[in-house]
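Lab channel / #folding
Pinned by the channel admin:
"Please post every new chain as: sequence first, then the structure tokens as a reply. Keep commentary short and put observations after the output so the thread stays searchable."

First post following the new format, from NK:
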Amino acid sequence: MIVTTTPGVEGKRIVEYKGIVFGEVISGVDFLKDFAASLSDFFGGRSRSYEGELMYAREEALEEMKRRAQAIGANAVVGVDIDYEILGANNSMLMVTASGTAVVVE
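Reply from TO:
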């Protein structure tokens, strides 16, 4: 499955548009990750626990989007966009959404 942020695939011709596809992941951050991140915030430096959670959520959202595109007969997704949001009463949930246009290229 070809996935790109560009509106087309170089060297390929889009022969069919299947529609917009999405992949969504909402991930909770547990107390230990929150505590570790607060230490990074206080002392400075990178928060490896949050970075790991963000990378996992992004990859899962992209994989879900690709599965949905494949399920409707696409072999590529173009114009991909990834959005991030913080949700929940204590801002303890991370939402990652990947979206794009499922297409058939040849």
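NK: The longest strand covers residues 14-28.
TO: also worth noting, The mean pLDDT is 86.
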